[in-house]
């Protein structure tokens, strides 16, 4: 993938990833060797029982994995999640999150990645693994 998207999404006033803006996600590092994202605590992300919604943690892990995949693609290629598994280990009450992702396997059409999500105290709150389809958006492909 062209590094222009990755360069743009790293800017504090980025406008290329609406989901990051909606949730408040801040990219820390986006590279071929790994991706790290932070999500500061926001009361708006708590579900009815006062616990951070599991779907928010899953979305953060998915985005971290997708961005390490994007950093490993050639220009003109994009990606889409085709399967994801998440295991939760502890509830998150009032804490920000940090997701760290890395590649597991890079095939021509399918790329696998994994992510860990930790709270502000560095405790593991969930782990995710996913497969991503490589989408060729180049002309004539």
Entry summary:
This protein is 21% helix and 40% strand. It is of the alpha+beta class.
Characteristics of this structure?
141 residues, Thiol Ester Dehydrase, Chain A, 3 helices, alpha+beta
Can you walk through the features of this model?
This protein is 21% helix and 40% strand. With 141 residues, it is of the alpha+beta class. The chain has one domain (3-136): Hotdog Thioesterase (Thiol Ester Dehydrase, Chain A, Roll). The protein has a 6-stranded antiparallel β-sheet with strand order 1-2-4-5-6-3, with helices on one face. Strand 5 (110-119) and strand 6 (124-136) form a beta hairpin. The longest helix has 17 residues, at 54-70.
Please describe the topology of this protein.
Blueprint: H1 3-9, H2 18-23, E1 26-31, E2 34-39, H3 54-70, E3 77-88, E4 97-106, E5 110-119, E6 124-136
Antiparallel strand pairs: 1-2, 2-4, 3-6, 4-5, 5-6
What's the helical proportion of residues? 10-25%
**H and E string:** HHEEHEEEE
Number of domains: 1
CATH fold topology: Thiol Ester Dehydrase, Chain A
Structural class: alpha+beta
Distance between the termini: 15 Å
Number of strands: 6
Beta percentage is 35-45%
């Amino acid at each position: 993938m062209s590094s222009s998207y990755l360069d743009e999404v790293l800017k504090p006033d980025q406008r290329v990833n609406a989901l990051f803006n909606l949730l408040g996600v801040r990219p820390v590092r986006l590279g071929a060797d790994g991706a790290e994202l932070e999500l500061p605590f926001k009361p708006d992300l708590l579900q009815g029982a006062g616990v951070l919604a599991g779907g928010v943690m899953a979305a953060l892990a998915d985005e971290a994995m997708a961005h390490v995949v994007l950093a490993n693609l050639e220009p003109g290629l994009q990606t889409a999640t085709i399967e994801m598994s998440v295991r939760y280990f502890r509830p998150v009450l009032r804490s920000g999150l940090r997701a760290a992702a890395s590649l597991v396997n890079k095939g021509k059409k399918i790329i696998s990645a994994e992510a860990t999500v930790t709270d502000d105290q560095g405790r593991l709150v969930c782990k995710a693994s996913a497969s991503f389809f490589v989408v060729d958006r180049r002309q004539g492909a």
